[in-house]
Amino acid sequence: MKKRVVKLNHRWKERLGGAAFLGPSLTGVSVFFIIPFGVVIYYSLINNIVQHDFVWLDNFKAVFKNSAFQVAAKNTATFSAIAVPLAVVISLFMALMLECRIPLKSQFRTFFLSPLMVPVASIVLIWQVLFHYNGVANEFLAIFGEGKIDWLKSQYAYIVVTLLFLWKNLGYNMILFMAALSNLPQDLLEVATIEGASPAYKFFNLKLRYLSPTILFVTILSLINSFKIFREVYLLTGDYPTEHLYMLQHFMNNMFRSLDYQRLAAAAITMSIAMVILIAILFIIEGRFGKDVEG
Fold first, then answer.
1. What b-and-e string marks burial along 160-176, b requiring 16 or more CB atoms within 10 Å of the CB?
2. What is the CA radius of gyration of the chain?
3. Do residues 163 and 192 lie in contact, with contact meaning Cβ atoms separated by under 8 Å?
4. Predicted structure pTM score
5. ∠ CA(15), CA(18), CA(22), 5° rounding?
6. At residue 290, does pLDDT exceed 70?
7. C-beta separation of 230 from 253 below 8 A
8. Between 266 and which of 17, 59, 137, 262 could a Cys-Cys bridge form, CB atoms 3.0 to 4.6 Å apart?
9. What ranges in 203-243 are assigned the alpha helix state H?
10. Could you read off the pLDDT of 114-125 as tens digits, one per residue?
11. Which DSSP category does 259 fall into?
12. Is the pLDDT assigned to residue 293 strictly greater than 70?
């Protein structure tokens, strides 16, 4: 009997100790994430912050019918569909290239890692110098007799922002892929080489399969960063960008300024659900593609 009591006391002490260690973290997560998200869900289901009458999905219906939201959702989805695959493929290619003996390797690495060491405002300033109406890009075009292009207010604005997104994110993605490549099973690659496997076979059937968890992580990271491109677009174009650059965050920012918290909350939840679905699909794809190399 005494032994059981001692064991129970010991278990309770362990649980209390674990709770004490987890307490500060759980409190921080609850205060800054869980409770605010619950408030956002609540705001999305009421008519206004004065009456607090539940209207359930009416705010979501109003958001989906809003033409500004439709444009913002389309632009954000298009940008993510273009920029994220480019960020993953190009950073993987650069990591593979840096494994080889190429000239100016350190300068190449520094060029893509430099955005990690400077503020976003400084990166945007560089892009403004390059793509301003009287900037470097138009001066370069003038050498060939071409007219000036208003890059940030034309159909080329998407290209400018995509290039900015890639330059800002490729360096970090490249580091992740280089770390993953250094942990590949070299004995397996050596056996494949002895057996006469071609470089293409080793890449697609060996390296790519072992890199699948890193590819998943880089894809998710790039996807999240693509949804946060509003910061760069806002610094480049201000409050009212061209229609091609009107993103979901612009819509939510405008709803916040007009104190329309209900539609703001509905748009935020819609974007969160879309991201959760996309990430779940990526996990399913990675699980099927890389399950035979796990463990």
1. bbbebbbbbbbbbbbbb
2. 25
3. no
4. 0.81
5. 135
6. no
7. yes
8. 59
9. 208-210, 212-227, 230-237
10. 777 878 888 888
11. T
12. no
